[in-house]
């Protein structure tokens, strides 16, 4: 599953369960032409959640992808804490001389697939965020994304350890 397929997969889920999703607000962030998480060169369109952006205080699912768009991790934030959950994986960035951010203390450093974890380390990963107005539905959406990924690849995304 790639970066741009996530939206289609989630729209399939929401349309197949109208009784659950009919009055739920779902917003997609960091999709089209998003910058890597380490590129903060344009403050109006950074590839990372920042304090005060209005996104980080919501519930939803998020995912990291390789620079080519292949999903490497799918996670959730069910308590209006997207900012905290995403940053818990990345940790405090190091600012390089050219202004790029790297994430040397990221939570994926011991991952079984070190090449995918290096996308986080180097700041080259892309972030996708989907906010959901009902936190009770976030886990369902995350598990659905995991399941669809497994159906396509016969394995979880490289940096995920388990479903849900």
Average of pLDDT: 92
Q: How would a crystallographer describe the biggest sheet? A: 4 strands, antiparallel
| Total number of beta strands | 6
Q: Which runs of at least 5 residues are low in confidence (pLDDT < 50)?
A: none
* Distance, first to last CA: 17 Å
Shape: globular
Number of H/I helices: 5
> Helicity level, as a percent range?
25-40%
Radius of gyration: 15 Å
Number of domain modules = 1
Give an overview in words.
- The chain has 164 residues and is of the alpha+beta class.
- The chain has one domain.
- It is built from five helices and six strands.
- It has a four-stranded antiparallel sheet. It has a two-stranded antiparallel ribbon with strand order 4-5.
- A hairpin with a 5-residue loop joins strand 4 and strand 5.
- Helix 1 crosses helix 5.
- The radius of gyration is 15 Å and the shape is globular.
- The model has no long low-confidence stretch (mean pLDDT 92).
List the helices and strands and how they pair.
Layout: H1 5-16, H2 18-21, E1 26-29, E2 60-65, E3 71-77, H3 82-90, E4 94-95, E5 101-102, H4 114-122, E6 126-132, H5 138-153
Antiparallel strand pairs: 1-6, 2-3, 2-6, 4-5
Entry summary:
The chain is of the alpha+beta class. The chain has helices at residues 5-16, 18-21, 82-90, 114-122, 138-153, and strands at residues 26-29, 60-65, 71-77, 94-95, 101-102, 126-132.
Keywords for this structure?
alpha+beta
């Amino acid at each position: 599953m790639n970066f741009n397929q996530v939206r289609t997969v989630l729209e399939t889920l929401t349309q197949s369960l109208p009784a659950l999703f009919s009055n739920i607000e779902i917003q997609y962030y960091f999709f089209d032409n998003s910058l890597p998480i380490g590129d903060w060169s344009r403050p109006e369109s950074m590839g990372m959640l920042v304090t005060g952006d209005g996104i980080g205080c919501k519930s939803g699912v998020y995912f990291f992808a390789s620079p080519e768009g292949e999903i490497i991790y799918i996670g959730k934030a069910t308590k209006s804490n997207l900012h905290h959950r995403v940053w818990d994986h990345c940790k405090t960035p190091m600012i390089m001389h050219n202004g790029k951010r790297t994430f040397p203390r990221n939570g994926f450093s011991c991952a079984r697939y070190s090449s995918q974890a290096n996308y986080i380390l180097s700041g080259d990963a892309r972030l996708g965020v989907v906010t959901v107005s009902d936190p009770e539905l976030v886990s369902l959406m995350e598990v659905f994304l995991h399941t669809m990924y497994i159906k396509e690849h016969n394995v979880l995304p490289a940096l995920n350890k388990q479903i849900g």
